Amino acid sequence: MANRWTNTLTERDVTPEAAFLNRRQLMAGAAGLGLVGMAGTARAAQETLEPNVWEDITQYNNYYEFGTGKEDPAEYAGALTTKPWTVKIDGMVDKPADYALEDILKAMTIEERIYRFRCVEAWSMVVPWNGFELADLLNMAGVQSGAKYVAFETVLRPDEMPGVRYPVLDWPYVEGLRLDEAMHPLTIMATGIYGKDIPNQNGAPMRLVVPWKYGFKSIKSIVRITLTDKEPPTSWNKANAREYGFYSNVNPEVSHPRWSQATERPLGGGLFARRVPTLMFNGYEDEVASLYAGMDLKANY
Ligand SMILES: Nc1nc2c(c(=O)[nH]1)N[C@H]1C(S)=C(S)[C@@H](COP(=O)(O)O)O[C@H]1N2
Ligand SMILES: [Mo]
Predict the structure, then answer these.
(1) Which H helix or E strand runs over 84?
(2) What is the pLDDT of residues 118-163, one digit of tens each?
(3) Ligand 1 contact via 171 beta carbon (within 6 Å)
(4) Residue ranges of the domains in the chain?
(5) What is the helix (H) or strand (E) element at residue 90, kind and residue range?
(6) Cα–Cα distances in Å, from 276 out to 53, 70, 124, 192, 292?
(7) Which pLDDT tens digit goes with each residue over 9-40?
(8) Does ligand 1 have an atom closer than 6 angstroms to the CB of 21?
(9) Across 138-179, where does the E strand assignment appear?
(10) Class level of CATH domain 11-292
(11) Cβ of residue 63 lying under 6 Å from some atom of ligand 1
């Protein structure tokens, strides 16, 4: 399908030092990915887009299975074996199975999605992901009518993951979405960045990206996807329910108990970088606000 969700960034949102991918290359890539027929306004937005540089995206990570320091994942995640890779899809689906990732990829259409990414810690970046819509994968497995939520699980390999000997979180890392959130066309499974295979520190070989939610919802290195009728447990909520809710939609008006979420620090701006206002639903309000119509977003944080 046309990549109409790519983004709606303007020059104001651009990260200053992130101009290494020139616009011609970006547009050539976009055309190659089937964006030729994209609506004029979306194309205009695409032209003003400047993702963060590769180094920002791949050297400053949260992946606690490899340590809690921002540089730990880049240093240690190389040890993770990502081939072969199997994803168990089970629960309320017509075709529960252990799916080989290569078989999944043969059936999926890989697109480029340039998304804002906002960590709950109040830093942010812009990432040119390559991936496919989660809805396509769920439809492949056949979602049964009673399913209401999707649960996700990260691989757990103590031999390859030095961080899991510390009980920072209850391993394996688990996350969840409501089914309508999971089926939303903005929700993708990312398998690449800048047209290259996604690096291990970013969640190889396949990780979730939900751009309107805080980054911790975007669970990495997924080995299991379960359709269920109950709200699934999520790692950060289990660790501290007062600070991290199930929904975790980016919301400048709902503070974290220990800091404001009204502003954020875009990566790549240096130590004394300016802070910029955080946008409702991380800038995707037009696309996703209707999912939460009538909900109290303070109570459902
Ligand atoms: N399995 C797993 N997934 C995870 C995390 C983690 O520690 N383990 N960290 C989360 C957090 S807090 C963020 S901000 C993003 C960071 O993604 P990035 O390193 O690609 O920027 O991954 C999320 N997914
Ligand atoms: Mo995060």
Answers:
(1) none
(2) 999 999 999 999 999 999 999 999 999 999 999 999 999 999 999 9
(3) no
(4) 11-292
(5) strand 86-91
(6) 19, 22, 10, 27, 25
(7) 444 444 443 443 444 344 434 433 444 334 44
(8) no
(9) 149-154, 174-178
(10) alpha beta
(11) yes
Helix (H) or strand (E) holding 225: strand 222-228
Instruction: Report helix, strand or coil for 235.
Output: helix
Residue written as token pair 């390859």: 160
Ligand in closest contact with the CA of 154: 1
Secondary structure (H, E, C), 67-82: CCCCCHHHHHHHHCCC
| Residue identifier of the C-alpha nearest atom 6 of ligand 1 | 63
- Phi, psi for residue 172 in degrees, rounded to 5: -70, 155
Q: Is there a binding annotation on residue 3?
A: no
pLDDT band at 2 (very low <50, low <70, confident <90, very high): very low
Largest CA distance in the chain: 53
> What pTM, to 2 d.p., does this model score?
0.87
pLDDT for position 48: 55
The Å distance, Cα 282 to ligand 2 centre, comes to 14
- State the amino acid at position 95 in one-letter form: K
